[in-house]
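Hi, here's the filled form for the chain we discussed.

Project: internal
Contact: R.S.
Residues: 127
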Amino acid sequence: MYSRLFVHIVFVTAAGSAISADVPVLQGYVSRVVAEEGAAMLALGMVSTHVHLLLRLRPTTSIPRLLQRLKGGSACRVRQATGHALRWEAGYSVRSVGERGLDSARRYVEGQATRHPDQRIPGWSVE
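And the returned structure, exactly as it came back:
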């Protein structure tokens, strides 16, 4: 099945919680869940306080289920793997992206460390 449903999703850490050394665990978990939910990750951007995803969705992808798994599951997975208590704020932001806007959206998502240099995660960059 081929779809042209593109979204930019953002979710943020709870006050007092930050993404740090958990990046490899978090990145692997997010990639796996996105694929399991029938989506394709086009770009990932992270700083210590929030995550940006640019995804291509299938028409059957449930965004609330995807985000519940991403946020709830990642908090559990990070705690198991690193002992770090990662917590997320309630809610998330989802915006549709047109095909003509994909390159711009990808640059924006992947450029988070440049936009928020004070929130850069040491040792992590988009590959």
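Let me know if anything looks off before we file it.
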